[in-house]
Amino acid sequence: MATNTAGTNARFYETQQVHYLRKRITFADYGTTVTVGKIPAGASVIDGGVHVVTAFNSSGTDLLDVGFIGSTTDADAYATDLTMAAVGYIPFDELGATTNIQQTVDTTVTCAPAQSVADATAGVADVIVAFVVDNDN
Hints:
Layout: E1 19-26, E2 34-39, E3 44-54, E4 62-69, E5 73-83, E6 88-91, E7 107-115, E8 124-132
Antiparallel strand pairs: 1-8, 2-7, 3-6, 3-8, 4-5, 4-7
């Protein structure tokens, strides 16, 4: 379903399928909150991670939090302090926690890359969030 507003409207496909959001981030995003996309009210986040394509190279730590802004806000509800210093796929570490909740409103998924020493010159990653919608209502 084309909405022509990628990342601004929650997506809801009528069939039984896993939906996903994918957003590329780079070292230039350090210190900002990046919008990954929106998920519809009642959706369940069931999987996700960050796929580091080019390692982030600050001389300190290179970390990523992933969370949401919705009926409540939790900046690290899905992932807390994932390290992005090496190439590879790092799964979210908070999906089994009580912070992974179904929202009552369309919810913005966010990520916040951070470095402990502000000297990175490289780093590229894709944040991927898999979810299923509440198609019973």
